[in-house]
Give the backbone structure.
Amino acid sequence: MASFAPVQRLVISIAVLASFVTFLDGTVVNVALPAISREIGGGITTQQWVVDAYLITLSALILLAGSVSDAYGRVLVMRIGLIAFGVASIAVAASFDPLTLIIARAAQGAAGALLVPSSLALITATMRGEVQAKAIGVWTAFTTGAMLVGPLLGGLFVDFLSWRFVFLINVVPIAITLVLLSRLHLPEHERTAKVDWWSGALCALGLGAVVFALIEQPNLGWQSPAIWLPAVVGVALFVMFLLRQRGTSAPLMPLWLFRVRDFGWGNLATLFVYAALSLNGFVVGVYLQQGAGLSATAAGLASLPMTILMILLSSRAGAWAGRWGPRIFMTVGPIVMAAGALLLLTVGAAFDYWWQVLPAMIVMGLGLSLTVAPLTAAILGAIDEKHSGIASAVNNAVSRVAGLLVVAMLSTIVGGALDLGGFHNAAWVTASLLVLGGVVSWIGIRRNPAEVAPAEAAASDLDPR
């Protein structure tokens, strides 16, 4: 970070560390799920809730958190988020039954929602132009690094200490960030944004009720009022949330954004692609331990080639997409990933990582490298700079909701048990979702990033405000 001024280096360090803990927590948990299930019980349902309780509050509140950050101050909101995340992490590690663990995970997600938008807002508020772009590049590189170290660290802690230490990994970076934050002195920004608490509540309760129904449905059946009633109420609340976004002067999720072609179709592609990635990450992390008998560390290392390829190649794919447009990469990338997912069908009772799993991880890594940067460029490049913050937050929320819903439907997807047959079922569903992502991209994505200027003008014209 030699090209940055001292205060800019401090801001970037704070932003990276604050976001790192939320990304790290999202990647370490999959390898810890079998150990959690063995110790506190609950089977696959508890495993689903450990992941989804975090994603429900994170997904539902991340849009609201952006407004809160603007209204009450980015530094204050980040400080509150860091402290709350640390306390929730300790509560997760100390949990003694499934219910307390799930509640603590939900609290973690709510705290994490305060960190991502406020960390990026610190960068966008203190830097402009090329410096800002470089800073966001640094932020992206380091937060992507959480994907690399998360499963490995999680596996090591599970194998040599306890799954509880997986959730205490966050405490050290949180403490460092709080110290750095105390040294940061920025001029107060104008706080004119209104916070639409009702929209945040409708979104959180709606998503929560639908996910509850999807997770518990295999246990109770759709005929049970404890299932169909939350499902109906959840859908109704989410519809009310969408209707409120049309009528309020300061929406959390401006619906006009989706009328911009590349933004709308790009987010639909995001929904399919990130649902597939979440399903694959969950199933591989759990099955390689419970079905194939690998240690948590080995299971954490299993998907490492995929992440390494993404880190090495994604920036190059972004440059290619800038030259030739994102459409071809957003089409080919998910289809290549689908081929990788189908390679997992070679996993059999006589397990061999090198011939059955590694080829799939390499092919999926190549496809992912072709997809991520062009997808981000297409979506954010379709929206003018004035609305780039909310556009990024919406896309982030869509990717989280995709993972939330597919994990909630896991029992239905695998047929009730994550055995070899269930693992193969998940591979088919993963491949199907990825093919849908590629097809949607081919149909919907049109604009080349070189045409951003006219796109910005068109997007601004659509803004009813």
Notes: The CA atoms of residues 260 and 458 lie 8 Å apart. Residues 254-465 form a domain with the Growth Hormone; Chain: A; fold (CATH 1.20.1250.20). The two ends are 39 Å apart (CA to CA). The chain has 18 helices and no strands.
